[in-house]
Design goal:
Shape: elongated
Number of strands: 0
Number of helices: 7
Number of domains: 1
Structural class: mainly alpha
Largest sheet: none
């Protein structure tokens, strides 16, 4: 158990998870950008948005994926929040589609998504997004724990420059 705690506390584990999340989102955006029309049709198949707002939503999602992935890759503040938001959004959409009994390709990694072709269902996508959301939670916790330990401790009265000296 102590070895697991050491691994989870490692900066290398944090970097690996953060970079893996960034690459996953940047790759997904890149594959969808290769055929934006197919991505628009995939969003339309979920039947959540009015037809007129599907195309702007598709471009907005792509922009958020690129922005979030880029910020996360560079370890810039806001990247985890964007990726976390997108994962919550995607999980909500997938749960809704499963509840409706839809058997469609999630479109996560562009048209002809291998996962969508092999499994013909949304359950594997839900599990994958859940694992990625756990990765986001890990990164947030890691940052919080390490930002507290990195903060300088307040000086004691003897160290304070305003303390009277004898």
């Amino acid at each position: 158990m102590k070895q697991l705690a050491t691994i989870l506390a490692s900066v290398w584990t944090y970097r690996t998870v953060r970079i893996a999340l960034a690459v996953a989102f940047l790759a997904a955006a890149g594959l969808k950008l290769a055929d934006v029309h197919a991505f628009v049709l995939t969003i339309k198949a979920f039947a959540i948005l009015p037809t007129d707002s599907v195309k702007p939503a598709a471009y907005g999602l792509l922009a958020l994926e690129v922005l979030g992935g880029g910020l996360l890759l560079c370890n810039v503040r806001g990247g985890l929040a964007i990726i976390g938001f997108l994962l919550f959004l995607f999980i909500g959409v997938i749960v809704n589609a499963i509840r409706q009994g839809l058997d469609i390709d999630c479109g996560c990694y562009g048209p002809g998504d291998i996962e969508g072709e092999v499994y013909h269902g949304l359950w594997p996508t839900l599990w994958r997004d859940g694992v990625m959301l756990a990765g986001v939670a890990y990164c947030v916790l890691w940052q919080r724990l390490h930002s507290r330990s990195a903060r300088p401790k307040p000086p004691t009265c003897k160290e304070c420059s305003c303390a009277p000296s004898n």
